[in-house]
Amino acid sequence: LWQGEAYRTNSEGKYRDATMADALIGIYCARRSGLGDLIASDRVQRHLATTVRNNFRNYGNGEFGPLLVAEPGRHRYGKDGGEELQVNEVLLGSAWVLVAMLAEYGMKSDAHAVAESLTSHLYQRSGLQFRTPAAWDSEGQFRAPINMRVL
Prior knowledge:
Blueprint: E1 19-20, H1 25-32, H2 41-57, E2 69-70, H3 84-87, E3 90-91, H4 92-104, H5 108-125, E4 135-136, E5 142-143
Antiparallel strand pairs: 1-2, 3-4, 4-5
Helix pairs in contact: 4-5
């Protein structure tokens, strides 16, 4: 799945060239649990940098947080029976996992930028500060307000 800059989400299919915001959560959890680096940390950092570029900076100029799934030049996938619901959104839980991974791997300025975009959108622009949703998008749509996982 390694492509030189990032890990693919899949070896085939619609999203194979995309990066996923929390794709390396298992690697992160293993490291935080004291198991060490299960894959080379320079690859993790390159993957995270690519994810920041594809999923965060190139989506709404970084104002909404990182999309769950994105690829260069593409930030919206067509309807295909339901799975597009999450891939076309910023999932707050996954977005905060990305912030934690960026900080863990020494990418503090990127971690801060993503965290700032999430808090700014939640507390200053969306009016959702007391109804934290599971997900939102750049078009003002949000899903599952008062979602306990992200609260």
